[in-house]
Amino acid sequence: MSAAKRGRVSKSSATTCAPSILKFVSRSEPSGRDVVKSVIHDLIVEVVKTSEADVAKHRGDSVSSKQIASWKTDFHWLVVEGEGWEMRLKCNICMKGNVTTVWARAGSCNIQKDTIVKHNNCTEHRDAEKKMLTSRAEASASCIEEVPLDTNEKVEDGDIKLFRTVYYAACEELPSWKVNSLLELQRLNGTDIKYKNLSWDTVSEIQGCIKTVFQRDLVAELITSDVYSVMLDESTDLTVQKHLSICVRYVNNGESVTKFLGNIHIKDGKAYTIVQEVISCLEGLGLDPGKIVSLATDGASVMTGRKAGVGVQLRSKYSPFMLQTHCIAHRLNLAVIDSIKKDEVLEKFKEKFGALYHFMSNSSIRMERLKDLQAVLREPELTIKEPYSIRWLGLRNAVKAVYESYSSLLATLTSFASESSTAKGLFKYFSDYKTVLLVALMLDVHECVAVFSQQLQQQNLCFSQIQPFLDGTLGQLKHLESNDGDNLKAMKRCIELKQEDSKTVAYLDEEKLLRYSENINHDFSSLRTRYVEKLQKNIRHRFRKEDSAIFKDLSLLLEPLVVTVSSETESLDALEKVGFLYGEDKDAQIYHGNLLEGIDIETKVVHKLLDKEKLKKQWPSMRGMLQGSYKNYSLQNLCKRVILMHEDLTEFVMLCKIALCFSITSVECERSFSTQNRIKNKCRGSLKPENLDTLIFIAMTKCDISSFNPQKSVQLWLSKKKRRKGRLFQDFKTRAKRVCQQTERQEC
Fold it and tell me: Which end of the chain has the smaller Cβ count within 10 Å, N or C?
């Protein structure tokens, strides 16, 4: 009975459990059945009465008008409809925001304050409230920002100079207070410019106008592209604030263009939060999420989760034509890291490099000693670097620094070996003959992989370029599996073998190496073969052909060299698959609400990107051009030719745009985070997220200062409000101290 009194058993659950209980009773002894049945009957009746009483407490009959009035005072969005048992609670914000929850439609029948507080704190309500505030801000600014700017209208020369100065400071990632110093410098150099002592708010407003004009041009190009792709990545800044970087890739004049779109501050790194912020950003700029054809992210589970990841939610709710790609540059870095794991020799190698970095960087005396010895031995002046695993190919930079100053490093460790056991242990390891050869081998391998990594980091990389780069890298690694590279050959030339006491001893620049024997060369060859083979295997595993099925289909339709050698059947199969993927209307479903208040499903039809029947009709003509006049064209050049010159092939024009829009890396997001960390440093830790976004946008989309035309930005700045330029021309004056009225009265 205690469970029933606490209201934990509902009428439905009691009714559901009754048949199973009665079935259990029927198996018991006949003499006790009647007694047990009566007890169970009384229990069920009591549960039903208790549940009905609890429901009655939460109905409108038990709430007074004073309580409702106080609720409306505390929650301005609350709407109460009906009376008594028909009373319902609704949310005005959710109704205006077209949120398909119970509070925006039928209304909640649970009439109590806890329910109202719970809805006020729920994610759907907060998103609707945020969207409403954003729309109000945009509506108030639309009358200003959407005013057509006359490019022929002349603006004052002083305004042009001011905006160029502010733009230069933002591009060079200088603090805003440096603008006044730059203005003063120009006056000292004889430039006629009257602006001086600009406030921080004025500089930020000018930067915002420059960003608005740039962003407006970017959105116009995105809309004309018909389709586009998105790149996402998240990071944490210096003040432990989480940011989401959004970059886009689109087609402009027949060529793919990758641009930074925004750096958004997010409250957490959950998939739902990221999706809502992305959609809010895109729709706020007037972009259709249904036109997204590709999403590139890193391999984090929140991005690539199969059930509720960001890619899955975007595809099911907003962008059914979108295909997600794990960034290939991240894949390569993971393949290199995995090749070292579970190998004792290589793991110890990396561990010793980390210990060497910490030993040298923790003492200025050791660093100065290394520099002096580098100068004496005529080796390049290099510092020991940390082998970062999170930085792309960070081990290669650490190995290269040690390789190019190996003799001076050994001499430095020798000088500190008598007073430090750490230095003694490091000297023992790095003066080992096998370690010397391993350093040269790792540099050869990582330089080969570094070339591949740089190729994958190209800003406008096309998917058709990946396979040639991959094949070339694997071929070079295959050669290094049984042959010495340039660095290993140079290292072996520096090693001299001498006979001492009937033993062979190895010397590196007159420094004796430890543990030399004939068997070491055999062990090193086995290690080299094992490591390079494992690296090749990991790269092939990370770059599986099964992950790029759509790329193969597009190559069979748009790449002349592939079309020439493929059969008609293969091309028709690819045509059928592409038509099925992009040539049919698809549904996007958004779920609102929760299990307690009810779930509503909003279904939206996203129209097809191309007509598959027209695509089939236009294929013979396209195939003829691919096998004829365009047979020597690359995929990028062919797509540009079709988009600009063959407007009659409408479906293949759209297919070419889709192919060029495919984003296979999220490198641009990583570049934006590097810019973020340079701008928001220890001296500028109080930058607000919106100002940080503006500065990153200007720095990422900067052009040459001579080609920057600030006329539109100046017009936008002047149109926002009446400018009191006279105040901006005056010298700085300290504000007079305010005297408290109460003090004046006491004096009187």
Answer: C
DSSP-derived 3-state class of residue 702: coil
Instruction: Using alpha carbons, select from 335, 473, 487, 341 the residue that is nearest to residue 400.
Output: 487
Q: Is the pLDDT of residue 126 over 90?
A: no
Rounded Cα distance between 219 and 210, Å, is: 14
Separation CA 659–CA 251 (nearest Å): 10
According to the 3-state scheme, what is the secondary structure of 294-350? EEEECCCHHHHCCCCCHHHHHHHHCCCCCEEEECHHHHHHHHHHHHHCCCHHHHHHH
CATH number of the structural domain 157-327+666-728 = 3.30.420.40
Place of tokens 């701008």: 679
Within 492-584, strands assigned E span 495-500, 503-508, 511-512
Pairing assessment for the beta strands 495-500 and 323-326 based on DSSP bridges: unpaired
User: pTM surpassing 0.85?
Assistant: no
- The pLDDT tens digits for 258-267 are 999 999 999 8
Q: How many helices (H) and strands (E) does the chain have?
A: 34, 12
pLDDT of residue 12: 44
Q: Scan for tokens 């602006």, then name that residue.
A: 195
Residue pLDDT, tens place only, 573-582: 999 999 999 9
Domain ranges of the chain: 2-57, 61-142, 157-327+666-728, 332-543, 554-601+608-661
CA distance 362 to 541: 40
Query: Position of tokens 């119970």?
Result: 102
Three-state DSSP at 190 gives coil
Interacting residues of 8 by C-beta distance below 8 A, sequence separation 6+: none
Whole-Å CA distances, 683 to 168, 180, 404 = 20, 18, 35
Instruction: Decide if 552 contacts 545 (C-beta within 8 A).
Output: yes
DSSP label of 72: H
For residue 2, what pLDDT is reported?
39
The length of the chain in residues reads 748
Using the Cα atoms of residue 324, residue 328, residue 329 and residue 332 in order, give the sign of their dihedral: positive
| Token duo for residue 68 | 């409702």
Give the separation between CA 340 and CA 335, rounded to whole angstroms. Answer: 9
Q: How far apart are alpha carbons 388 and 254 in whole angstroms?
A: 39
Please compute the mean of the pLDDT values over residues 319-344 and round it to a whole number.
Answer: 91
d(CA 280, CA 266): 12
